[in-house]
Amino acid sequence: MNLREYFERIGYSGPFKKPDLETLNTIHRCHILSVPFENLSIHCGEKITMDLDTIFNKIVRRGRGGWCCENNLLFSWVLKELGYDTTMLGAKVFNSLTKEYSPTESHLINKVIIAGKPYIADVSFGVSCQIWEPLELISGKGQPQLPGLFQLVEHEGTWVLFKTGRKILIPNKSFVSSSLLDKALTKTIYCFTLAPRSIDHFLQTTEHLQTSPDSLFTNKSICSLQTDTGFRAVIGWTYSEVIYNYQEGHDLYEMSTIPDEEVEEVLKEKFGVALEHQLASVNNKLCLTL
């Protein structure tokens, strides 16, 4: 781990000698504003691994993003280097279409203990359900952030993450009925237990997600990045820019279709992602919402 290179990648120039909550909040926010959540390697014929050196080179030195098992694994490494008491956990993602959780723990998150208090850090969920700062691991407490009100609820050892957002304004009427939109104000995001997980726990699921024809990630090319006012995303050929609380109680969703030959240019301009291999964009009808 080269912390200087990592901090340069995320645009962090503050102190890092004390593993406190303020530093954690700041680097967490810097990460999500600088490093996209993306699965483009799958659609460029590249293999996604959980090798730390490979992930560091991809995200830090090549300026790419990654999905949770890359971003949050890298973030775990950073936290350990900074002296934080951190543990990897596994989460099951909620499918809003089937109303069920994923059968396996496909999402990697980090638990961090600071001054005896536990927090959940997650720099790689993307789109509107991305937390901007770590959440205190306390049941039932509403924790407001710019994306909305997040809440963790515990029942019999299982924790569930919810988010309550705002209504959606969609100027481009051709997207009003888009399958990418979930207009429910309160969303279930994922559930998890506090059982510690290692890298090995995610290897089989990671392989499945990037090879199975039934996987969301083989059926959709995804890139999203948080901004100072919201987030932007490319899913297949749909480009979206979102401004939170654009009007009181409403988020603005500017959505458009971009030609296939312009997708890679949009990735460079809006996300800072320069691909080494040609992208084959895809957006098949599986559940994924902004």
From TrEMBL:
It comes from the Eukaryota. Coiled coil: none annotated. Its EC number is 2.3.1.5. InterPro entries: Arylamine_N-AcTrfase (IPR001447), Arylamine_NAT_domain_sf (IPR053710), Papain-like_cys_pep_sf (IPR038765). Signal peptide: none annotated. Transmembrane segments: none annotated. One of its GO terms (molecular function) is arylamine N-acetyltransferase activity. Keywords: Acyltransferase, Transferase. It is an enzyme of class 2 (transferase). Belongs to the arylamine N-acetyltransferase family. This is arylamine N-acetyltransferase. It comes from Lepisosteus oculatus.
